[in-house]
TrEMBL record:
PROSITE patterns, alphabetized: CB (PS51900), TYR_RECOMBINASE (PS51898)
Family the entry assigns: Belongs to the 'phage' integrase family.
Domain Tyr recombinase: 154-328
Native source species: Clostridium brassicae
Residues annotated as domain Core-binding (CB): 53-133
Protein name: Tyrosine-type recombinase/integrase
């Protein structure tokens, strides 16, 4: 009884969708073909309101498992937020979800996203469904066929050494000087800088241990200039907070990521910069300057906490001067 109505509805929607995509299409001909194809089939609507979804239940187990694997709280929040979006979109048991379901979700979710953001969504789905399949919660992995979209390759533009010097000179307070020099000389991620404590610093060797991505610990170095400015800044402190960088006002709590971003932006405005300057730009500049000054790639890779040399190479950018110098050497 109600499959005939459903079949008519499918045919009408199909003709409508195709007409939007291909305005010159012969609607009557398409309708005739669709009706012929579906003639011997029963079409039933999906009763989404009655379908039980087990996504939220499995998602909780997945996130707990990934937390044990060492994923950061920020990454876990990102996974949870995006997978709950998926759960809201598709009310189906996980075992019945197929590749087309995932593609339809990605089409709706990523309509106005850049390729990098789309690839992030694909990675999350591949991770979740790959885990479900490995743990034998589902018989097949529907995300296995999903492919990353091709991202345009763009040159990243680091700060020049002259620009770094101009930013140094624009610093007013001891904290500004110490913060800028420390970020630039260590190449640390913003989250790593936030979590550093004073007692983790080896002043004699000018090194310290940081906790990076995946809860992995590594040793980084800082320059003599950074050492001098850090000590000068710490002498101005009257608080007992263990954090390396704290707020200027009482109760002098640990300086958060947003506050560090604001501090760097303020320094760039003081320097009269028109370009956007942010903490990660110093990390990129650190890698570029070290590689251009002859530091081996594997050393820069270790200092930055990258698992593969390919990741480090993304941050590197050979300077025009170095290219000309190397070319003239063998000409």
């Amino acid at each position: 009884m109600y499959s005939t109505n459903s079949k008519d509805e499918v045919v009408i929607k199909l003709v409508g969708k195709l007409s939007l995509e291909f305005p010159e299409i012969d609607q009557l001909k398409v309708r005739t073909i669709a009706e012929e194809v579906l003639y011997k089939y029963d079409v039933l609507p999906q009763e989404t309101a009655l379908v039980a979804s087990d996504i939220e239940e499995k998602l909780a187990i997945y996130l707990a498992s990934k937390k044990l694997d060492g994923l950061s709280s920020q990454t876990l929040k990102n996974y949870q937020y995006n997978l709950l979006k998926f759960a809201d979109y598709l009310r189906k048991p996980l075992s019945s979800i197929n590749s087309m379901d995932l593609r339809m979700f990605l089409t709706a979710r990523c309509k106005n996203m850049k390729q990098t953001s789309t690839n992030g969504q694909i990675s999350i789905l591949k991770s979740f469904f790959g885990w479900l399949h490995m743990e034998e919660y589902i018989p097949k992995n529907p995300a296995q066929k999903l492919k990353q979209t091709k991202e345009p390759k763009r040159l990243r533009h680091p700060l020049t050494e002259e620009e770094v010097e101009l930013l140094r000179q624009a610093c007013i307070t001891e904290r500004e000087q110490a913060l800028l020099e420390f970020i630039y000389s260590t190449g640390c991620r913003l989250s790593e800088v936030v979590n550093i404590n004073k007692n983790s610093i080896n002043w004699h060797e000018m090194t310290l241990c940081v906790i990076g991505k995946g809860n992995k610990e590594r040793e980084v170095c800082f320059s003599t200039k950074a050492k001098v400015l850090l000590k000068k800044y710490l002498l101005t402190r009257k608080d007992n907070n263990p954090a390396l960088f704290v707020t200027s006002k009482k109760p002098h709590s640990r300086l958060g990521g947003r506050s560090i971003q604001r501090e760097i932006k303020k320094i760039s405005l003081q320097a009269g910069f028109q370009k956007s300057v942010f903490p990660h730009l110093f990390r990129h500049s650190f890698a570029t300057h070290k590689l251009n000054n002859g530091m081996p790639l594997h050393i820069v890779q270790y200092l930055m906490g990258h698992e593969t040399p390919a990741t480090t190479e993304i941050y590197s950018q050979v300077s025009k001067e170095n290219v000309l110098h190397e070319y003239k050497k063998i000409s």
